[in-house]
């Protein structure tokens, strides 16, 4: 079973000591945990803005001067879409934090040979980390795929399916499919770290996690608007823990008793997958606005 | 050709006079326009929170005591999902602002007869109105459907497809399909007003609209984070006008010259449909947080 918590690094401008501190991810167990990444000489906050064109490769050269071959869709994108040529500079990433600069050494009909012009770097997760929890096991019509794709694209660090009264199962097949969706999305959006799709958890386990966690946002109707809630709770907000609707009233009460913070998502009735994404988007944009204050 | 602007009502807490004022929608032409809805004795801000269970019906009773029959999926939801019985109180809405309270007069195997217990109301659009513009004519894999469904669900007042250098066409078939998607979503999320899907416009027309509009948010990389931009521009922000990525650099420059405001959407590279929804979600949540200050 994979860890329920990914490494977290808060980037509040008023908490510089936390921003700079470093605690290794394995020193924590569940998602009550907090960890941060070390200072870096790279500006990696904007993981996909500007810079060299970046492509996914499972394998990276182990050191400067090493060569790997890039084929398939990434090759297509390099050669046909961007029309890159021999000696053009590009970056390769492996979705596990590995990143290396280099150039196209040679190009033929089926792929390119990439040569590393520096040693590969291993980048630790940057910025605030969002752990998403949603009961999406029974969503139909590609809605679960969509939820996973968008969580990946928007930078969630993990998604955990919840087994609740209304959504009590998730099939193995579906989990496999969602893994593939997430992987494809991570490649497409050039995430340096793949999103973790956790095994499903039951409601009792969730309550236990909430009670151990610093801040859990529970999306419910008629609650304080999300942005007001996070602005008020900024000092104590170390990590985010999102729990989405489609709960029964009793389940919501139990989550709030366990220490969850109720937040409202505006005037509209949102589907589970929309509410999940609305929460995540807003937190990502809020975090983005905090970092430049 | 449908109007490009839906009625707009800003709900800034610091602009109470605007909130209360009323200008009929037809007094304006393009989406440089602003209009507001009249005061109402109903709390309609939360269009789908609390209150009676609400169901869609094309036809509403014309007055108190009138009866209409509800069948199909709405009947299914009433009778099978919520297990409503004879004499249970419900509301019917028609997606054009019409809303009426009443109860189930009788119920049989194929539908229910609904009897109005009051005269129907016609509700004008509430809250801030968001006009979305995005180049989604060439999106594949259901992404355009998804964009339209989520814009509808999140309360956008209109969506206009843009014809740009990179996305120069949108087929008639696709427009028909998107109309159906929007209609289904409006029913599902119980919007009192259906979203308007405008005819596609070309880039030149867009520039013209931008130059006439009070505030146009243009999503671009490396720009001021969205929430910082809207917090600064709150006083002049009467309506929103969203233009999404997948533009060439030259197109972005032209939009900014025409008066667009560049806004950033965080550190990740987002697909067109994700960027559109990210902008809309954030503005909806921001608006929600302003209304309760």
TrEMBL record, chains A, B:
Domain Ribosomal RNA small subunit methyltransferase E PUA-like stretches: 71-114
Domain Ribosomal RNA small subunit methyltransferase E methyltransferase per the UniProt entry, residue ranges: 132-282
GO BP field: rRNA base methylation
Alphabetically ordered keywords of this record: Cytoplasm, Methyltransferase, rRNA processing, S-adenosyl-L-methionine, Transferase
Keyword S-adenosyl-L-methionine attached: yes
Stretch forming the signal peptide: none
A GO molecular function held by the record: rRNA (uridine-N3-)-methyltransferase activity
Places the protein is found: Cytoplasm
A GO CC annotation given for this chain: cytoplasm
Protein name listed in UniProt: Ribosomal RNA small subunit methyltransferase E
Lineage: Eukaryota, Viridiplantae, Streptophyta, Embryophyta, Tracheophyta
